Structure formats: structure tokens, C-alpha cells
Amino acid sequence: MNIGEAAEATGVTAKMIRHYEQIGLIKAAGRTGAGYRVYGPNDLSTLSFIRRSRDLGFSIAQIRDLLALWQDRARASSEVKRIANEHIEEMREKMRLLQDMVGTLEHLSANCHGDARPDCPILQQLATGDAETSCC
Amino acid sequence: MNIGEAAEATGVTAKMIRHYEQIGLIKAAGRTGAGYRVYGPNDLSTLSFIRRSRDLGFSIAQIRDLLALWQDRARASSEVKRIANEHIEEMREKMRLLQDMVGTLEHLSANCHGDARPDCPILQQLATGDAETSCC
DNA sequence: CGTGCACCTTCCCATCATGTCAAGGTCAAG
DNA sequence: CTTGACCTTGACATGATGGGAAGGTGCACG
């Protein structure tokens, strides 16, 4: 199986497959006489695993660990769970930060006329750091 | 005022001030005879404006627009509000994506024993794409 | 006046995951 | 044999930021 077919089958682009090989996330694929990379069912499973991990937002480093655990028959599920929970916490933290920013900006936007006049609490806040519109 | 003092005063690192100058976000600072950049009160205001904008998650491109509006006395606040609302929507979208990932992963994690045994619904899902633990 | 230290300058490289583009080799069908 | 689709490597870009090297400047203290 060529890299293009493997890409099609797993949803990982050919570009990324080569990249993952280069950074050592996956082992180097076999080659034909002409130098084409060749992929078998095992490789496809690994690539699909990576794709699903990325879809869940795991970083390359985390995927590296997950792959190692996946291929370790003596693994403890606690370790997998730890990585997952860590990642959940990271994502929750990102959401918190976004929520804070959205909250502030929503408040400012709500107090902005949004018409042709130039005065605007959003710019006011950005310029001075004063909330001026501490209305509530 | 030196770049270091300006950085201290505004919370924008010297590194980033130079960078913003290079990409044309701020105009080139004046220089002393020796080539040191010099900053005045106006420059500090601009840098603080940028810093607050970044704290609210605006991209450089958006900040460029906001700065232009800020310096335009004939601006319409509707334009500022539009940029802000656009940004709010972007952030909400990011939160939605995160929430989806967190939801899925939480579900998997909740069904993982997290003990010394190797079987683990998280790895199961990553490997096969089957939710196996469609318990509820 | 000299020395040392903190600061400044420019320039290059790294991150992270991904995309784009270019120049050239290979394969299969017509 | 040509054409077109595919493969190869390599370089460069993104966005915002950090790190570091190599060399010049400013100031205070002895």
C-alpha cells in the first residue's frame, strides 16, 4: 500500500505521515525498490490510532506515550487514564481562559452602541484599562 | 525611555516590541545617537493598547484593525463592535470544539478502571473507533 | 581613567502541527 | 512514448513568542 492510499484509508495526510516518521512517532515504513513507502495493516492501525488521538486533541508528545502504552501488553490502565485526565484538565483550563475573555468582551460589546458614532467602550477599555462601563 | 523600560511599563516584552515594529504593527521608534530605541508616552499608550488586546485574545491582524480604528477620530463604533463580536464567535467556536473533545474523553475516562490491569476503554476507542462502552 | 555589569543592537533558530510549493523520479494506461 | 497521477526530498510559511549568540553602549564605582 502506497502512502497516498494509506492517507486515504486513515485520514492522515501523506505529508503528516512522512512528518510523523521523521520525528520518530511511527517507525520508518518499508520501501519498494524505487523508494516508495509501503504500508501494511499494522501501520494503518497505528495511523488510525494517531488520527483518533489527534481528533481528541492530544499533543504529539501525549500520543507518543499513548502509542507506547497501547503496544505494551503489560500496561496499567491507570497510566492511560492519568494521561487522559491530564489532557482533560488542560482543555478545561483553555476553556476557562476563553470563557474569561468572552465574558469580558461580551460585556464591553453589550455596552457599545454599534452605530456611526465614534465613542466606544471597547476601545475605551483597550486604551485605558478602565472599565468605564461598570454599569452592573 | 529605553525599550526595557517601555517593556516593564507596558507588560510587552522587549522582544515583542521589536517584533511588532518589524511587522509594521507599530511605527518604528525613534533612536538615540547610539541606535537605542526611544519611547514616549504615546508609544506607551499604543503598547498598552496592544497588550490589553492580546489579553483579550485578539489576533495581530485584529489588533491592527483595532489600532487603526482607535486612531481614527471619524470611526464608527459599529465597526469596532463587529470586530469584537467576530472574535467572540471565534472563541465560542473554539470552546465548542474543546467541549466536544472533553465530553468524549470524560466519558471514556469514567469507564476506565484506572488500575493495574491493561484493558482500557480509552485505548480501545483510540484503536478501533468503537465506543464499546456505549453504556448509557 | 579603567573595569564590570546591565542594557542595547541585529540576526538566527526553535516551538507546534500543518500546508504549500518546487524539482525531479516512477508507474500504469493509452 | 507520452501523459498524468503519484511518489520522493527539501525548503519555506503560518502565529506569537522564546532563546541565544556576538558585539556595541551607558553608567557607576574604584
Indicate the CATH topology of the domain at 1-59 in chain A.
Multidrug-efflux Transporter Regulator, Chain: A, Domain 2
Percent of residues of chain A in helical segments? 55-70%
Radius of gyration of chain A: 24 Å
> Beta-sheet strand percentage of chain A?
under 5%
Number of helices of chain A: 6
Low-confidence stretches of chain A: none
Shape of chain A: elongated
- What's the mean pLDDT score of chain A? 93
What is the oligomer described by this structure? Answer: homodimer
* Measured distance between first and last alpha carbons of chain A: 64 Å
| Strand order in the sheet with the most strands of chain A | 1-2
> Most extensive interface: pair and counts?
A-B, 53 and 53 residues
The structural class of chain A is mainly alpha
Extended strand count of chain A: 2
